[in-house]
Design a protein that fits this description.
heterodimer; A: alpha+beta; Heat Shock Protein 90; five-stranded antiparallel sheet; 5 strands; B: 116 residues; alpha/beta; 16% strand; globular
Chain lengths: 145, 116
C-alpha cells in the first residue's frame, strides 16, 4: 500500500472559469502527488484524465469551481463543485457526442461531448448532481489495484 | 517506429533532446478535439494535431502521450514550446496537413490508437 491505512492525503484547488491558460494545473499537481505515492501508472492516468475533464468543464462552462481530492490507501476521491449554469438534462449530457459548448470553445479543442462520458469511463464510482441556475457537483472514486 | 523515423517521414523540424529521437512510438491519433484524445488515446502514442494551445501539452501529459506533431507548419508560441520542454514532450513540426501526415505514418506501419 502506498499509504498508511488511516492516512489521507488531500488537495484543494480553486478554478476560475474561462482561464484556459492554467487549465490542467490542478490535475497535473494531483497526478504528481499520486506518482510520488507510488500508485501504478494506469490508475494514475485514469484519475488524471477524469480530473482534467472535470477541471475543463468548470473552465468552459462555469464562473468558478472548487476541486478537492482525498487519497487513502485504497482509492482516490475527487470532488468538484461549480458555480455554473447547471445541466438541464443529465441523461442527455452523459451521451457521447452531446455538447452545448459554443463554437469558440470547440475552436480551442474542447466541447466534443466526451467530457462527462470520459469522467464516468475512468471512474469506479461516478455521481453527478446539478441544479439549473446554481451549479453542478461531481464525485468520482477511483480504486487502487 | 522511432521518433527519428517519424521525423524523417514527415520531413519535420524537431524540438527534442537528441536521445528522445530514439524513443519508440507504438501508435498514433490525429485530432483537434482534446476530449477525443483523452477518450480514445492509448499510452505511448503520438498525437497529430493542428491545435496550438497550451492545453495540448497538458492533455499530452495527462494522457501519457509521448510526442506531438503540429501539422501545416503551425508554430505554437514560445511559452508552449517551453512547457513542452519542461514536460519532456518532444514536438515536431511538419508542413503536411493532418490527413497526409497521418497517411504517411500509417502507410509506413504506424497503426492508429484504436487498432480499427
Amino acid at each position: 500500500m502506498p499509504l498508511n491505512t488511516n492516512e489521507i492525503t488531500e488537495g484543494d484547488f480553486q478554478i476560475i472559469g474561462g482561464n484556459f491558460t492554467n487549465a490542467g494545473e490542478a490535475s497535473m499537481q494531483m497526478k504528481a502527488k499520486l506518482t510520488e505515492l507510488g500508485i501504478d501508472e494506469a490508475t494514475i492516468r485514469r484519475a488524471a484524465i477524469a480530473t482534467f475533464e472535470a477541471e475543463m468543464n468548470v473552465i468552459i462552462y462555469a464562473a468558478a469551481g472548487r476541486l478537492r481530492y482525498y487519497i487513502t490507501a485504497h482509492n482516490i476521491t475527487i470532488k468538484l463543485e461549480d458555480m455554473g449554469p447547471g445541466i438541464e438534462n443529465i441523461e442527455l449530457a452523459m451521451q457521447e457526442g452531446y455538447s452545448t459548448a459554443p463554437d469558440w470553445v470547440r475552436e480551442m479543442g474542447w466541447g466534443a461531448g466526451m467530457g462527462l462520458p470520459n469522467m464516468k469511463k475512468n471512474s469506479d464510482e461516478f455521481k453527478i448532481d446539478s441544479v439549473v441556475g446554481e451549479g453542478t457537483s461531481v464525485e468520482m472514486i477511483i480504486n487502487f489495484s | 517506429m522511432t521518433l527519428k523515423e517519424i521525423a524523417d517521414l514527415l520531413e519535420a523540424d524537431v524540438i527534442a533532446d537528441p536521445e528522445d529521437l530514439n524513443i519508440t512510438i507504438k501508435n498514433a491519433c490525429s485530432a483537434d478535439m482534446m476530449s477525443a484524445v483523452l477518450y480514445y488515446h492509448t499510452p505511448d502514442s503520438l498525437l497529430i494535431t493542428g491545435l496550438t494551445q497550451p492545453h495540448v501539452i497538458r492533455t499530452a501529459e495527462i494522457a501519457g502521450i509521448k510526442s506531438i506533431v503540429f501539422v501545416l507548419d503551425k508554430k505554437p508560441g514560445a511559452e508552449i514550446i517551453e512547457l513542452a520542454k519542461q514536460k519532456k514532450i518532444p514536438i515536431l513540426f511538419t508542413r503536411f496537413c493532418m490527413y497526409t501526415a497521418s497517411g504517411k505514418l500509417y502507410e509506413a506501419g504506424l497503426p492508429g490508437c484504436l487498432f480499427k
